[in-house]
Amino acid sequence: xxxxSHDPARTPHPVRxxxxxxxxxxxxxxxxxxxxxxxxxxxxxxxxxxxxxPQAPRPGGQPMSTPPPPPPRAPLxxxxxxxxxxxxxxxxxxxxxxxxxHARGGPLPAGGPDTVTAKLRAAVGDVLPDHGDPDxxxxxxxxxxEGAADPADPxxxxxxxxxxxxxxxxxDLAASVLNPSLDSWDQAPAASALEALVTRELAxxxxxxxxxxxxxxxxxxQLALLLARESHPGGVRLVCGANAHHSLPRxxxxxxxxxxxxxxxxxxxxxxxxxHQALTDLAGPHGPGSPRTPLVVAATAGTTxxxxxxxxxxIAGLCAAHGARLHVDAAHGGGLLFSDRHRDKxxxxxxxxxxxLDLHKLGWQPVPAGLLAVRHPRDLTALHHRADYLNAGxxxxxxIPDLVGRSLRTTRRPDxxxxxxxxxxxxxxxxxxxxxxxxxxxxxxxxxxxADPGLELYDRPTISTVLFRPAGATDDTVAAVRRTLLxxxxxxxxxxxxxxxxxxxxxxLNPHTQSEDxxxxxKLVEGSTPA
Length: 531
Known about the structure:
single chain; 7-stranded mixed β-sheet; 5-stranded mixed β-sheet; 36% helix; lyase; decarboxylase
């Protein structure tokens, strides 16, 4: 029963005064535990307003219209009901993922873009129907899985696109359920503290002091150039190798920087002698160390095309001698830091002012999972921005963390949770073992190619990318082989142009790939090559 009678006009909003459990009963008469359904609680209108006669005149004399029917029940992912409504939905998702994968039957759907699009449209139908479909979740997940390029399939090996670990995907679900937004502390109390812990730990792994979370290598590279520009009021000029990621010259354009100076990379890596000459040519009237415009040199630790690593110690020495700032794009190769066997390939990384990391590559995270590490935390003050509703000055003075200056974005999901769950579950040794596994498989694939007279190997892999092509094939043939495998849904290989020739690219990021999978991949290539 409800409590003693009272005047509802004097108490339009019951107040919960007890920490006792909530119930599904709405009782305005003094009850101390209740749940207010969202559909029945609007602004300052008390519950008694819903008992008005719809034909009663409005203040202007017009009768009220009939109120709309209540909306369909839409359970929340958390809150008073706990996450229990998710359980049957998760079963639906897992079943649909399984059925979609079986329907696909390979690393990607056969038929090419038009066929995939037509099947998806037929399966989905009207995306905004007049009335909802209770089977929509199953339909959409099945359709997406059936039409997916599955990075967990050993024959899907085109890009720096990893199969995510189960623990990371599970943590990502928790992040979606809790839905913190990392633009103010009152939206993300624990998530902001966790982000600070994990970003500093990963920054220290690179030899730097702090890091901020980004959406990936492109945002990290852009942010690195922004911090460089803001550290020099007169602006900076980018110097990068011809092998640099396309996001770097694009970031220079977006930031209004001068045209980048592009240094030759004849063997796929930035040439130190050519870099020395470029920095010398850019020197100011007082010689080396005083360039006319402050310079930021961008080196690469893991090129997109071949996974090659620039000579970081030599580049760092040249930057020091010429007074240039050093940024290292380690979006691909940064994961080598976890491996005792391969960490030395990143010697010199600690000399950088900024480092791009990307854990949705050699970190097995769902997209996105990027970071930018910085040597001097003071550089991040360039991101400071005041928005009174998020980081009022008096709140900051009172000790509430200011999160606005941790990103160029405002609303941010807690992507650090999946990273933290992975780091803590596997540890450095566990992640290092995954890195060692994919690198070993890449070397094994290179051995198979080298031993096959029908195939040509570009070079031994530095990380886990292997370039090869059918022996004696033209570039047009190489491109056609790749498209045939893609359209038939049998294998996904990338393409790279080096030494003015087109190569097939196998990027091995699946630690579950076996030797027989490598042999199958090569047989598919040879079987698709015209005689």
